[in-house]
Amino acid sequence: xxxxxxxxxxxxxxxxxxxxxxxxxxxxxxxxxxxxxxxxxxxxxxxxxxxxxxxxxxxxxxxxxxxxxxxxxxxxxxxxxxxxxxxxxxxxxxxxxxxxxxxxxxxxxxxxxxxxxxxxxxxxxxxxxxxxxxxxxxxxxxxxxxxxxxxxxxxxxxxxxxxxxxxxxxxxxxxxxxxxxxxxxxxxxxxxxxxxxxxxxxxxxxxxxxxxxxxxxxxxxxxxxxxxxxxxx
Length: 233
Description:
With 233 residues, the chain is of the alpha+beta class. The chain contains three helices and twelve strands, in the order αβββαβββββββββα. The chain has a six-stranded antiparallel barrel. The protein has a six-stranded antiparallel β-sheet with strand order 7-8-9-12-11-10. A hairpin with a 4-residue loop joins strand 5 and strand 6 (89-94). 34% of the residues are buried.
């Protein structure tokens, strides 16, 4: 894995959420309520999981507040541009072009894979994880981790469906909507779930499992058409 790929994806990673209305705020609590992550693939386009978008849309309706993509400290009102319900994917259109820390419009973006990943292929993800040391209680805190796993195919015996999963990772709620990318930064999918083997033990006690992701190759052409349409505005 190249360090540059992780650094680039940190610049492209966004949060999707809404602002808590003043009428519901308590004291000085923050009003930002993120529901998941996404990835900027064009100055006005973000890809995310369909579930993340559904949660944000429902929260927006309940609170009567704008749907927001947050990049750094900048908020962008957004709307659904394309949805693939079968594969649990969504493309979101920003109300204006996204800018970087320097205030300039972002012009460099990741590419989307136009073919499915191969079994055993190493793919990476950025995720916020809370880590603690076995040797020192002072070495604790939240870390933005650049980690990777290996592609597994999870074939269902009850229905005609195959899920793509990354093995070798532990369960983290901050995965959802995150881009799954290769060493060069190419996106192969978006995280949608985490599953574990069924045992007699409690779910949280089972450490190993699979980070399920929706492959993006079927949506690549639709995202490209949206990007071309937005570029003409």
